[in-house]
Please model this.
Amino acid sequence: MRDSHQREIHDLRLSVTARCNYRCVYCRAGEESAQPPGELSWEDLEAIARAFAALGIRKIRLTGGEPLLRPGLAAFATRLQDLQLEDIALTTNGHLLAEQAESLRAAGIRRVTISLDSVQPEKFARITRVKNGFARVMAGIDAACAAGLGPVKINAVLLRGCNDDEIEAFAALARRGQVVVRFIEFMPLEEGRVWSPELVVPMAEILQRLAASYPVVEIPCAPSETARRFRFADGAPGEIGIIAPVTSPFCGQCSRIRVTADGKIRTCLFSLREWDLTAALRAGSGADRDAALRRRILEAVERKEARHHIGEPGFVRPGRAMVQIGG
Ligand code: SAM
Model:
């Protein structure tokens, strides 16, 4: 499946819920409804995944909101195995992972990415607005490693004045060799949430800081990879990644497409337009529904944006946060 810019689209990020048990300060407002409206059934999500797979999607990443909050996730992953994908992965905050890691691995999930924005328990609580989450996430990381959900990746969004003093501590964590640590530049999502260019810690600065503490050497990798990858120059185990959508966009190599938990296709995180799949889902049973889904997907892919416009005059932030889009 190619878009009009000749990019092959083969990675689907499928959000299974917009609910989250964390309220990360940069992502979410205070209290929100327990059950956001319009959450698709597992059957509908499976029909969508099947339609994407028929069109050439090779990797599905289950995300949210917090996917581990939704009962039935492992059973859903098991059903996805029928699609013969190259990869089924999961992005989670890790809070509920210790108890679910084994069953998710048994269900065919191969890899897990865990969000961790601080290695200091108190700061972690301030960022997530959840007490005692840190120990649970650490237990989740250990359980994911033990269950063979590796290489386990840790994603840290860096925010100036908040956790940018922890670059070296995260690098030290990576050097233990158990997990790959990836730094992510803070992106301007959801109109109205706090974001300014000054809050972004650019890739160049992260590399400078690493050069002064734990020098790294770049690992060559496929152009479609979102992360630049680095190993430690002194030969220590471990790997660092940097995902720099703000200062070094990778739109030209983008192979991704997203579906929200309420059944909307987003062709870019920064899309201002969404493509509703619910009418196609109700277009009759079996073959009619599947054909309608495939038509709608192709229609959206055809219109995938060439690139985002962060930092340019007239850039408009999308109406939804990552938690609703599916990170
Ligand atoms: N609940 C899961 C988790 O915590 O990984 C999956 C969803 S969460 C929205 C996915 C990722 O998006 C998290 O790593 C989060 O830090 C990141 N994220 C949210 N808002 C962001 C932003 N404005 N810029 C960069 N990353 C963001």
The chain is about 30% helix and 15% strand. The mean pLDDT is 94. The first strand starts at residue 11 and ends at 15.
